[in-house]
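Lab notebook page, bench 4
Experiment: in silico fold of construct C2
Operator: M.H.
Input chain length: 355 residues
Purpose: comparison with the prior construct
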Amino acid sequence: MTAAIKSPGRGATSNEAGRFERFTTELTEDGWDLPEELPPLRTEVREEMARNLITYNKSPDLPFDRSINPYRGCEHGCVYCFARPTHAYLGLSPGLDFETRLVARPNAAELLRRELSARSYKVATIALGTNTDPYQPIEKNRKITRSCLKVLRDFQHPVGIVTKGTLIERDLDILAPMARNGLVRVGISLTTLDRDLSRRMEPRAPSPQRRLGMIRNLTEAGVPVRVMTSPVIPGLTDHELEILLEAGKQAGADAASWIMLRLPREVSALWREWLIEHQPGRAEKVMARLREMHGGREYDPRWGHRMRGEGTYAEMIAQRFKAAVKRLGLSTDMPPLNCAAFAPPPQPGDQLALF
């Protein structure tokens, strides 16, 4: 197992090379036996001029067939993030690189406008923030997500947003009018109400209490919000399921969803390292539950299985969720967003309509 790297404010405890790399690097002692702390890891951002923005999928597990992501990597540093393995495609580590070496797409809004203007484009809800958080800290200055929202507003295009970031409140001037036209819905991820556990597991994400405040502020502005109790972590956060749903309901959420902890590719090793570092007494129980749900493996990527697992424990969580949302009056089947309003705005050089 890789030696742990102590880096304050970061989620991963190692930085192994991606699975496509020929060479790896590792920390070694210099032989002097003198205590030496590594300097804090600073966030680096490079720009990528993307060729296209909208990504299409055919997954039966997902309620959308298209998504956009203004950023690669995520500074929130959630150690359990299922998107970490995507950093390997950039020649970077899914570990600390994922949360410290980020990629911004400054031409995202321009590409989105072009793709939505294509005559062949068929409107359907776009998911924003499915891979990395569109409201992570670098959005404060980059404003790429805000630029994309302006395009979606101009086209009257429906969008579903998933985030933990408080910066979404900055964009209420765009989101509230879109919500009045049935064009937007937001999902706020709530994993635990334990501030200490959250800070260690999701080091640069807003506190659980602040996320509840986000739900309250969004719903008071008329933006519908779904509380996402995701991921449910067996043996660590599963006992909070009903409490999280109740807190979301009290904050104003009208819908709810859940997903079991997923450990694809490199995430599995990163998660085990984190458990040993932060929750050594629970590590074996957590991993045993996961293997129980995946036929002896730590993760099973099959469609229809990867999000929830199977077996007695997975069924128990599903039944608890079902009972809680029924008691609280939370919806699990959200009404479709408004696709009928979609209309590309006039562009310079367009021929004026006669009537």
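Observations: The chain has one domain: 45-328. Strands lie at 44-47, 55-56, 66-68, 71-72, 101-104, 126-128, 159-163, 184-189, 225-232, 255-260.
Next step: discuss at group meeting.
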